[in-house]
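ok posting inputs for the S-adenosylmethionine job
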Amino acid sequence: MSEYREINFKKKFGQNFLSDKNLLSSIVRDASITKDDVVLEIGAGAGALTEFLVSSAKKVVSFEVDNELEKVLAAKFSDSDNIKIVYEDFLKVEEQELYSLLGCDFKVVANLPYYITSPIITKLCTLKHRPKVIVIMVQKEVGERITARAGHSDYGYFSAFISANAESKVVRNVNRKMFTPVPNVDSCIVRLDLKDNGYNQDFFEFLKQAFKMKRKTLVNNLSASFDKTKVITALNSLKLDNSIRAEAIDIEQFYKLYELIS
Ligand code: SAM
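and the output
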């Protein structure tokens, strides 16, 4: 697209930019952004989505790892006083720095590079002060995995981790042709509404263990770390079959199992 002819797109940073104004304003609507909201954006790029966030939110803090984009972003936002762009790798940012920039009450909107989808979501879900809402662009198949329910073939550790932390929904499909340059995959927008779960890190380790080997039964996976008889007794007391696999179990059942076994 002509507006991006000056940009030297970097594949290593997952740089596929948006420009369609209808899509950009829909993403902002998907996150229900109002003038009361402080928004964390991850991956400003050339500022296409940032621009829509800046005009809808009270304040925007946007992280961008590629400081070669500084010139274009500085020019674009020279007249805006509610945007701060931080040229850092978001995955390396300390929590305290985040809260000093954002406060403790914020939403996240991001068109993310696909290879960092899970580390970014994991980081956001494990912050002391978590965002209320996360609206992110992800690869279509990843969106299906994130929002899969127990019993579905896409359901795995990451789906269970997400359902422990949030209500999740695919709110929009996005065709690959909407990006410049056009990537090899289609995308979707996922909205996560975070909930207070009270689950601790120990429970998430238990969950990881339960899903460790996809082909194994839950009893076999958990027996690597816990007494096998205890695992079987716990399953039976929840009226679950000994041959059940982790893929069939929802997060509430997992937590009951964890309480009985650990
Ligand atoms: N938001 C822009 C848009 O919608 O057109 C750009 C989206 S592009 C898919 C992702 C952006 O994230 C790129 O500009 C890339 O340089 C940036 N990025 C990649 N890894 C990052 C990281 N770890 N921290 C911050 N930004 C990152």
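notes: Residues 13-18, 42-45, 48-49, 63-66, 89-91, 111, 113, 116 surround S-adenosylmethionine (CB under 6 Å). The chain has two domains: 2-194, 201-261.
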